[in-house]
Amino acid sequence: MRKLTITSRNARFQQWQALLGNRSKRQRAGEFLVQGVRPITLAVEHGWTVRALVHPTTGTRSAWAERLLATLDAEQVAMAPDLLNELAEKADETPELLAVVEMPPDRLDRIQAGDHLLVVVFDRPTSPGNIGTLVRSADAFSAHGVVVTGHAADIYDPKAVRASTGSLFAVPTIRAGGPVDLLNWARTHAVQVIGTDEAGSVDLDAHDLTVPTMFVIGNETVGMSRAWHDACDTIVRIPIGGAASSLNAAAAATTVLYETARQRRSVRGPAR
Description:
By secondary structure, the chain is an alpha/beta fold. It has 10 helices and 12 strands. Helix 1 (11-21) packs across helix 2 and helix 6 (128-140) runs parallel beside helix 10 (249-268).
């Protein structure tokens, strides 16, 4: 495996630094940065391609870091700690490892369809943190995939990756343009398409969620697009009280996922 040392802001460092804030450059490079023991471990366990492992030029390493460096077929880059801190966006803490991970293709066949299929569509989210939080909830409640549609925040934005706490690598998370391809896929797999809106016609817990289901969560400010609204088989509402007029999009998704898991657990046992 190739080994490299970086002690200045050379072209390679600048290339990786651009991945932090430039979506277009992430997309062109087909890679993004990952830090943290759990996220990097899950990326490896779930078969994601790690292109490079970046570690500080000084200091000791844990058994975890040593094991990855010894066993993973990835370029190894020793980097000056101050530069590594910049890539990790941490001023006072140098990570043991930073992984440069390859983006997988945005294909619906990454989602394994089955009798208990559960997919969450997030329509035009503006907050990468909300994307990561939704993916984490999808993982916790046994969803099989997340699809982010329309003009949206990037699922590989560092804020989204951090907020997912590694679940991005466990739950297929895909970008799509709009409803058409997703609806064709849903019909092929006999999936009901359920929208969520505070003006929905049915309470969430009154609707049967034990069958294959695709939930649509709308944009944080304006909700679902008209195209998604018209495409849904049913639109459900989450009954809420108090002074709140609605839930945060990621919180609404978590509530929907919990109710789905609750119904399925009572009927069939664990969803996966």
